[in-house]
């Protein structure tokens, strides 16, 4: 026989209040109200009754009154996590607060007029203006970087900002000009857009016809990708028309075709579907890298660009050649979806067993999901195999490569340098920090998390991947904040049960994670790389969590403090664990093409280059999705 419940239905309706903890005052007033008052009042005098009423009334006011929360300062409203504790209302009651007149409530407004008029609206506006100011600082940084390049290295691939020289590290196509061009367009800096655009129009075609050896991948992602984005943002093929500065869009498209026609020889000269690594531009001949092998990430990270070029030029040859590579890679044996970092264009097979998501492996995984998104993200399309490869690979990452550090449990992605049967290495290149962004993008397909949930579009696996993305983004951020400069090293190792390096630590004893992160002397340089801020940008767009903006701001401030060169430009560093850090005299093209672009977008309006309408190529050049065939 079931026991009687210890409370009546009325108690249930009352939210089981009597089983909750009650203060002395609550117990006293409640017993007055429920027992004594009822029983005694029939016989009490009017005076006693009024006294009881007064006590009851006072107690009621004290119980129901809560003091107003503290005023949210601008900085607190930005949400730095630490300030959250300050916002907790303590509910302490003073006589003064009881006597204080209640605040006047603001007039009720229709929902759409609220954001600019009520108190919350003011806080939001202040937060908005903080980020507008910060975004402006990124724009200033870009102008400073460009001015150094323009003064000392115009037309060279890269600037050496300390010695005031230019250097051609990428084959001599003026890579910084083209990498920076669409960033200038997005930032609305017409002067730089015009300078870069005019240089492209005046010099690039000639350079392409005269220059020697270039790397297929580097030239595709930086130069071809930059030209194609510029074409779209300048309004080509009904593109965004962000600017009227610089040449007409077809100038960019014609040069892109000229370049791609020559790069195609890397595919057509190969005995297999795996392209050769290098091309001599002037005679369109292709050559393998020394040693004969191509990098896995390189051969699989040209398809977004070649597909888009086919779409806007109407010539399918670019897409056909580039997609043959991915079609072929689908057939190759893998380790739970993971692939070795080298592949042979002669045999068409992977070479060696080294598996990692850092250098030579990284953007293979990035383009699996992005090429599928570019083609319209359909599970019925002829690119759906890429989505399956991506899903399988991410399962492999979670099963074989993801571990937690000790003592504080940072989630990281390690390596299998000798394949499945060799040991695990707790080494993580900064390059791996592209992965949080890619995982988040793969989970929601570019929608905000909120919208994806409303659409019921997140599988269990998507949610798991999004969680991993957030954990990894934190680790990437901690790789910055652990060092004395606040800038990440090129490579970090993580302390695990099996792995520790005596005498080496993270580089800044004040960080909570100094014992989790190990930085070896040879890995302490910083090349102004974008991967972490790229992921912060994607995660902010998708989760709308302001902490990602705050983290981006910390990183930007560290770049400003330690890498800015007064005479113009920004420089790579030799050692991020030492203050002041020694400098390397090189501004990589991706600082203008990627790092500053992602920071600018992170601090700005989410409707600019939306993630459900564009994919960013691996060099941060936005390419529209859902291409015309
Ligand atoms: C860039 O050229 C690209 O982001 C590439 O995918 C990796 N290396 C650099 C930036 O670090």
UniProtKB/TrEMBL annotation:
Annotated positions binding Ca(2+): 618
Signal peptide from the UniProt entry: none
Names of the cofactor(s): Ca(2+)
Pathway(s) where this gene product acts: Protein modification; protein glycosylation
Active-site annotation: 218, 362, 490, 531
Gene Ontology process terms (BP): carbohydrate metabolic process
Pfam families: Glyco_hydro_47
The name this protein goes by in its record: alpha-1,2-Mannosidase
């Amino acid at each position: 026989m079931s026991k009687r419940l210890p409370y009546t239905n009325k108690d249930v309706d009352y939210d089981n209040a009597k089983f909750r903890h009650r203060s002395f005052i609550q117990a006293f007033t409640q017993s007055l109200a429920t027992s004594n008052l009822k029983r005694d009042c029939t016989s009490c005098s009017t005076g006693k009754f009024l006294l009881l009423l007064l006590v009851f009334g006072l107690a009621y006011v004290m119980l129901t009154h809560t003091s107003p929360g503290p005023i949210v300062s601008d900085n607190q409203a930005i949400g730095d996590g630490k300030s959250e504790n300050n916002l907790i209302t303590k509910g302490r009651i003073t006589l003064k607060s009881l006597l204080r007149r209640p605040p006047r409530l603001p007039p009720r407004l229709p929902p759409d007029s609220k954001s600019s008029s009520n108190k919350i609206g003011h806080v939001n506006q202040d937060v908005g203006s903080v980020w507008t100011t910060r975004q402006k600082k990124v724009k200033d940084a870009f102008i400073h970087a460009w001015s150094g390049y323009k003064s000392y290295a115009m037309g060279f691939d890269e600037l050496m900002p300390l010695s005031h020289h230019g250097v051609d590290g990428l084959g001599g196509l003026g890579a910084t000009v083209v990498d920076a061009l669409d960033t200038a367009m997005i930032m609305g800096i017409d002067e730089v857009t015009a300078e870069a655009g005019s240089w492209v129009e005046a010099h690039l075609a000639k350079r392409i016809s005269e220059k020697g050896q270039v790397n297929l991948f580097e030239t595709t992602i930086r130069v071809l990708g930059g030209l194609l984005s510029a074409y779209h943002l300048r309004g080509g093929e009904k593109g965004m028309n962000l600017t009227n500065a610089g040449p007409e869009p077809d100038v960019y498209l014609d040069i892109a075709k000229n370049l791609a026609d020559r790069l195609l020889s890397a595919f057509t000269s190969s005995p297999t579907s795996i392209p050769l690594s290098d091309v001599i531009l002037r005679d369109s001949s292709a050559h393998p890298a020394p040693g004969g092998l191509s990098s896995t990430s390189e051969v699989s990270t040209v398809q977004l660009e070649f597909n888009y070029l086919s779409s806007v030029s109407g010539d399918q040859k670019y897409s056909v050649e580039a997609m043959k590579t991915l079609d072929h890679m689908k057939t190759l044996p893998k380790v739970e979806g993971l692939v070795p970092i080298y592949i042979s264009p002669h045999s068409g097979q992977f070479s060696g067993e080294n598996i990692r998501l850092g250098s030579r492996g990284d953007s293979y995984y990035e383009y699996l999901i992005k090429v599928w998104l570019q083609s319209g993200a359909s599970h019925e399309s002829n690119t759906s195999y890429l989505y399956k490869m991506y899903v399988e690979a991410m399962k492999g990452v979670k099963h074989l490569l993801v571990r937690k550090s000790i003592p504080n449990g940072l989630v990281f992605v390690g390596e299998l340098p000798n394949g499945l049967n060799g040991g695990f290495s707790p080494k993580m290149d900064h390059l791996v920090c592209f992965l949080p962004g890619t995982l988040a993008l793969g989970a929601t397909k570019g929608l905000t998390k909120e919208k994806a949930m409303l659409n019921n579009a997140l599988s269990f696996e998507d949610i798991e991947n999004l969680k991993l993305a957030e954990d990894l983004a934190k680790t990437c951020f901690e790789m910055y904040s652990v060092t004395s400069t606040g800038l990440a090293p090129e490579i970090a190792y993580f302390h695990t049960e099996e792995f520790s390096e005596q005498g080496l630590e993270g580089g800044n004893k004040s960080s909570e994670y100094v014992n989790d992160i190990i930085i070896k002397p040879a890995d302490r340089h910083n090349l102004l790389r974008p991967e972490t801020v790229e992921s912060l940008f994607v995660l902010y767009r998708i989760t709308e969590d302001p902490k990602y903006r705050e983290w981006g701001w910390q990183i930007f401030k560290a770049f400003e403090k330690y890498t800015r060169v007064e005479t113009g430009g920004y420089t790579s560093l030799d050692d991020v664990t030492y203050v002041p850090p020694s400098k390397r005299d090189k501004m990589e093209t991706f600082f203008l093409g990627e790092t500053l672009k992602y920071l600018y977008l992170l601090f700005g309006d989410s409707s600019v280059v939306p993630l459900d309408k564009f994919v960013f190529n691996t060099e941060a050049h936005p390419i529209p999705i859902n291409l015309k065939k």
